[in-house]
Predict the 3D structure of the following.
Amino acid sequence: MPVVAADECSDGELITRSADGDRDAFEVLYRRYARPVFGLALRRLGDRGRAEDAVQETFASIWRAARSYKPERGPGAPWLYAVARNAITDRGRARAEPPTEAPEQASSEPGPAERVEASWTTWRVHRALEELSPNERTVIELAYWSGLSQSEIAEFLNIPLGTVKTRTRAALHRLSGLLEEELG
Amino acid sequence: MSDKPDFRELVGDDLTPEESERLRRVHDLLVAAGPPPELPPHLQEPIEPEKPRDTVSYLPRRRTGLLLGLAAAIALTAFLGGYISGQRHAAPFEEEFSLPMHSTVSTSNASAVIHVGKLDSAGNWPLKVDLKNLPALPKGQFYEMFLSRGADARAASCGTFRVAEGSDEVRLNAPYNLRRFNGWIVTRENPGSGKHPVVLTT
């Protein structure tokens, strides 16, 4: 059976290979999921230092617990999400003080179910962004989170406006394929 | 940032209705998700799996130490107020602590280090900011540094500046209680545009 490069493996295959001590597979998992884990930890803990600790504990847990992953029970992403959530919860319990200021109007906050759903979707979106090429990811980041117009992005990156539009549309198409489940 | 991009501008108007609807939902997911955070430098590479505890971040502890140091500095400053005030203009920049900043765009190599000086008797934290690879801006535009608090990214301004190409150093000031904030950002300001894109963040 030919050996598949770790970069081309599914998340589940990478977890299985990590369970066998394959460090390359573990490294690819880390590159795919470090930012989504960090984002999830930041949102849950509200503290950058504790979130950084949670990222390291999450991946230590993944390495230790990879053998408990059963491919026949489902893909790797939900398993990774559960490991991350547990590690972040443990980190949250490690220090009892509230991580952020108490909300003034509790009633305006989403309920637990909505928060779980939003966390999972955000996790999936951030994970999908890691699959874009650097060029595509850059135009998406500038368009969505730096507040630049398409012409401003072209000026900022010193590339033609048409290239910005092509990359943006290609990136959105690619994301639509990666987020099939969320799009229903 | 809070500025929601215009979907039509992003994708054009030559899509089929089905395609447009599909990309619109991707667009909505991106807006709802917000930006993924940049990993700090010490998390750029995977941990050593067998020795996870050896590589646990030192930053939180260091920050705790810094806060204790700041409290001590504040007490010392109050005690020596008049003397320090009289000396500060002649003294060189005395760093209390420093914080790295990184680009909000993963492919940009812009970065900065904020050197926070000693609090003066009037309540000013002098800032010396070493900037790297921040592009020079067109005439009329400038950068602005803010302290952030929660969702309010631009909670308190620490001043504006422009840079030459390459590396630069600017002096700014934070006349605030730093404990009330949780980070710094640098925005690119273009008066009249109504937009404040973040280019650097701690």
In short: Chain B touches chain A through 52 residues (CB under 8 Å). The mean pLDDT of chain B is 77. The domain at 55-201 of chain B is CATH 2.60.40 (Immunoglobulin-like).
